[in-house]
Amino acid sequence: MATTVAAPARVFGSGIRRREDPRLLTGTARYTADFTLPGQLYAAILRSPHGHARIRKIGSSAAKAAPGVVAVFTGADTEGVLQSIPCAWLVPNSDLKVAPYPPLARDVVRYVGDAVAVVVAESAQQAYDAVELIDVDYQPLPATVDPEHAVKPGAPQLHGEAPNNIAFHWTVAGGDVDAAFKAAEVVVRDRIVQQRLIPTAMETRGALAHYVPATGELTLWNTTQNPHIVRFIMSLVTGIPEDRLRVIAPEVGGGFGSKIPQIQGDFITVFCSMKLGRPVKWIESRSENYQSTTHGRDHVQDVELAATKDGRILGLRCTVWAGMGAYLSTAAPGIPTILHGLMLSGPYKIGAVKEDVYGVYTNTTPVEAYRGAGRPEATFMLERIIDRLADEIGVDPVEVRRRNLIPPFDNGFDVITGLKYDSGNYKGALDKALAHAGYEQLRAEQAEARKKGRYLGIGVSMYVEICGLGPSQVAGAVGFQGGLWESAIVRFHPSGKAHVFIGSSPHGQGEETTFAQIVADELGVSVNDVKVVHGDTDITPMGWGTYGSRTTAVSGAALAIATRKIKEKARLLTSHLLEAAVEDIDYANGKFFVRGFPDRHKTIQDIALMANVAWNMPQGMEPGLEATTSYDPPNFVFPFGAHLAVVEVQPETGHIELKRYVAVDDCGPQINPMIVEGQVHGGVVQGIGQALWEQAVYDANGQLLTGSLADYAIPRADVLPDIEVLSTVTPSPHHPLGVKGIGEAGTIASTCTVYNAVIDALEPFKVQSIQMPLTPERVWRAIAERKGA
Amino acid sequence: MDITATYSFAAPPSEVWNLLMDPDAIAACLPGCCELRPLPALSGVEGGDDRYQAELIIGVAAVSGTFTATIALSDKVPPHSYRLQVDATGKPGFAHGSATIVLSAEQNGTLAHVTAAANVGGLIARVGQRLLEGVARMTMDRFYGCLAKRVAGAGS
Questions:
Q1: What's residue A500's pLDDT?
Q2: CB within 8 Å: A703 and B126
Q3: Of A662, A299, A180, whose CA–CA distance to A462 is shortest?
Q4: Which CATH class is domain A405-465+635-789?
Q5: What pLDDT is recorded for position B136?
Q6: Using one digit for the tens of pLDDT, what is the confidence trace for B54-81?
Q7: Do B123 and A707 touch (CB under 8 A)?
Q8: Which CATH number describes the domain made up of A485-631?
Q9: CATH number of residue B51's parent domain
């Protein structure tokens, strides 16, 4: 059969299918829970049923005598073995008070889910049965669950170290905000509650620890986003030297931030294995996950915007009470501060900002990063208050945005909070979203519909986000107790196939595919000839993990540079083998050839073989075809976009129908547009979940009332429209491939997009604020109240 | 969770009072209950706390289990008012409830005004929260309804 040979399409930029998916979709992927070792024991953790209580006595004799039980441990047993769980983001100039965070509670429990004791048994069932036999005598104490109320006089106190429950008070200020408000012709205010969310990764947390007393070595299978950080922290807490500590993150079923921190269960599992000298496995149930794995958001925000009558923004002033939960989780203090406050001005030219952030201890599950981590909370404040301004001055909300946008720039723009955005074309993204959606026509349809008693709403939100974390020097300056560089090894085997080893740890983002595309594109090999290896600290080079949309932005840069080193070595070796001057060696489509003589060439496969057998190497060149790069980015990357939603609200029932969702995102050049689209889809949906359905609810005693998926509503496909995904392309000036992150963009934009659309729909009722999630009941009540008013 | 309710009894307050203080009647009428075992009065004062221990089977939605409960009758002003305290702990969590019961004479009998407050924790709170108030109310209705029937039965 005749075939047409087309010019090879570039691998970079092609939406090839994810290589991860066959194993994920056929159930053959292996998660932490799927590993079983000879002699393995199972741990079940007894968790506090009280939000706040003193432990008077723990009776464990019945549990110890139960069938199959090998040991029962309490906090007292960890004395001298486990250190307090460290907080790894010590935000400076914030009077940070890090309270002790014991892996197993000592004397006091501070949230429902706080670990009290652990049973280790021959089977998981025996362990769970025996947990119920532990008799704990609690003296309940008053609890506090709301971050704003917890700082008030008379509130129950969690930690002696932190008077008034204030973990930190951080301020960001730029420009003269008081002058801006004095000069303002219009001031609009809002109170926004970013409700607490539960990340709900499909795979719950878990660990399998295997400590070998004879060698002092620990192998830990752990469902984590950052195995190298786990090794570092685990070493600090247990005293096991890092060189004897191997952390393996096998298949990881989603994280969304909830698998950044090291949580009590990880340390408890390791402790049990150290004590018993046998492998111990602990896997959370969903109910346990909801209580004891970290939560997200939980802000109470007071926002004020100063502007002129024609909608020019002069200043932004905010106070935020950010719930931290009962203890400071690994990265928690950095989220409502560095990742939030520094992004306050968004894509707009704002001359003055000031924000006070109070991090507050409450009797709740510790709060951590959750997809977007600080940036959704900043974007929402800004994009919501701009809609309030538009409403106040009677100007279209899109027009107000246009009047304040930073003009396009391609190499650096200094914003008032001190950051330097890398590149942006905000107007371009906005124009594209409006044109695609048919904004003018939508407004006309809305007006027509209102005449017929139908309530359509159009919501717009823009965003610019900070990701690709980040320069390590900046990490140090903002108190992050680690670096943020990444490394990659590219190793070509004699047959021309390659391994890529990376220090970051993808868990659903598709880098096994996109990273192979980077190598394939650069060297002309097939994507199928490149295997990407990650998630094992004994095999992979150092890396700080997959979070903050940093894997492609930082780890991908390391890989691109390592690949270029391979290319340079191949060029040198070709010149040697072909006896041509190196300046005369060109490269195209996988071949290194003498300029003008394409037949005189070596393929990358030829070079891989010759470099590995090393029969004929140039003087001074090392054998092998391998390159390693450690890459510390010179700046963050700043993706951006404009999203638009159309909703219809039924005023009789408060029901919201999401009719359209348009996302225009700019993450620079896309390595794999299909994966970008998938990331945008997932992100948008998680953000919509906050707007419409999700909320972790505690009662006044600290009981988690949304303790299962029966009461915590996550988005489902049947209530979502087709998401219309578009993009613009503004390369990052400092990334070797120009790319930026896309993992969190959708979440950062979509919550306020949908919220603004709902409030816009209710404009005839003059409803301006409804607390999220916008359940039918709340929408109906808001309408009813306005009707009554 | 605060619940108030009023129950009517076809008997004079003194008769209703005796029934409400009768451990056998309480055991027979408390849903999921079996037997009340007397505990020593904390106060040690004659006519002070009447305290009992009981095994209760409580079910809320998908969560059910056996609770060990302490039931205490206190602040007794016969035949006018008393306080009922139930503290139950078990595998599915814990429940603490207290109620003030005030009896008033009516034309054809007695009205009992019950003001109750309860808080629950553990699995029962996390999973069954939406149904808790309904279950608490139903439990009270059954308890006092059963006692009212006993009064009516005794009177006939």
A1: 98
A2: yes
A3: A662
A4: alpha beta
A5: 85
A6: 888 877 777 778 889 998 999 999 999 9
A7: yes
A8: 3.30.365.10
A9: 3.30.530.20
